[in-house]
# Entry
Amino acid sequence: MGKKQKPEELEVGSGLVLVDKPAGLTSHDVVGKIRKLAGTRKVGHAGTLDPMATGVLVVGINRATRLLTHIVGVDKTYTATVRLGQSTSTDDAEGEILQTRFASAVTPQDITAEIAKLTGAIQQVPATVSAIKVDGQRAHARARAGEEVALKSRSVTVHHFEVFDIRRIDGGKLIDVDIEVRVSSGTYVRALARDLGEALDVGGHLTALRRTAVGSYSIDQTLTLDQLGEDFGYIGLAEAAEHLFPKRQLTAEETENLGYGRRITASGTGADPQLTAAFAPDGELVALLIDVPAKKGASASPDAAHAADSESTDYQAKPELVFAITTPTGSAPSGTQGPSDGTSDAGTSGAGTSRAGASGAGTAEAGAPDPGTGVTQPPGAAG
# Structure
């Protein structure tokens, strides 16, 4: 996993740590352990996992915490076990069993038919025990206080929903279904279990959940906390950015202009803009760029301003997030400022928001910035 260092000799730079989170720890607990191992408080994560859940937790350290907001929204893949025949207060095994409706009459054909209806673009009501805020207070807190919590449905996408095994237990009264799902950000796997059970009129909940992939980062790339304690491996900032975004190699002049916060010639993404990782001639990650409609004036570099005046392009590349500034000789020209992305390493310290000790899908509140990293969490990350 990229760079490796012994903890006692650690002088960690910036990068991503791919952790195989164990059961029983909150995502916040994992962040705390990474802080100690890395010797920095500038640590955050890209999507909460429940204490019950295991698997891929992407952790950012130092300047790489600023990449997390671009990882939070990617698709995620899970393996899970759904128990049909019982409903719980949290839609998973950590909650109280509310109702038992034997699943003896449910057939494998019934299960696959209802799973087909839960695949694709669907409307999903998030799990009640979640970190979504209702009138300023988290839903799980209201639920535990005995309040009735009604959450609005939201659009999510279940790209893939496959059954691996169906087993009858407890004399055939209950059914365990092993599944794999790939879902969009904001999907609750617990809610899929709940809705599958309700569609079959027997109730359902999760008994196991393992995140096997976050975007293109897979479980095979992760390290356990014990392994990290022996040999701290992480993906360096430049390598992580190159993995996540298209790459653009800058000239020395472009690197200097970005140092002044100027726009430069468009990367070519045009009317369908996407972030591009821009690298200095020496290989250092300078910024994430995005093509925006051309803006004439002093804020643009001479080459970009010329391009904006030509008929060949209507776009310029704007520094969306600046990681390194190559300071040009002399002071900045009058009226120019440094990078205008408004970001700095200050304020990135701290862990991702977690429902520490709470049952159910541990998700950061919809659309709220993580108090530790500044990362805006999706509206109810899966798992």
In short: Confidence is low (pLDDT under 50) at residues 305-313, 328-382. Helices lie at 27-38, 108-117, 139-144, 189-199, 225-230, 237-244, 252-259, 302-309.
